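Bug #77: duplicate submission created two jobs. Keeping one. Sequence:
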Amino acid sequence: MTRMQPKVLLIPAALCAATTAVWLAASDEPEAGAPSAQPEHVQQAQAPAPPASVAPSQPAVAPASAGREEVARWVTESASDDARTRIAAIIALARAPKAVALPALHRTFEGSSADEQQIALSSLYTIAIEQGDDDGRIRDAIRGAIYHGGDDNVSGNAQALLEDIEAAIAAQGR
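Kept job's structure:
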C-alpha cells in the first residue's frame, strides 16, 4: 500500500480551515433566540473536510445523503445574489453527485470572489477524492482556475490541489 506524502493531506486541510474561517467571518451571528433569515441548510452548512487518508478500496460513488431536490436547490443557490446563500451552496455541493455539482462549481470561477473560488476548489477536491475523477473533468476545472484565474492565491491553491488529486488517483491505481 502506497502512503501519501504529508503535503498531500496538509494543503487541502489548510484550505478547508481557511474556507471555514472565511465563512465564519462573513456570517453575522444572530442574537440568541432570534430567528434566522437564512434557510436551514445554509445555517447547517459546513466546509467539506478531506478524508484523513484515501484507501485504494474506497468506492467511487456519490454520497447518498443528498436528495435530488436538495441538490437542485444547491445548484440554483450557487448563483444566488446573496453571498452567504451562495457560499453555503458551494460548500454543500461537495456532497452532491459529480455530474450535477461540477457545472455549478465550474461557474464559480467565472467572476466570483477569490474566497468563493477557494471554497469551490475545496468542494471539487472533496468530490474528486470521494467520487473519483476517471474522466478528468474535475482536474480540467481546476486547471481552468490555475490558468484563467485572476488571483495568485487561488491559482497557487488550485495547483496544489491538482497535484494532490493526481497523487491520490495514482495511489488508488486509477
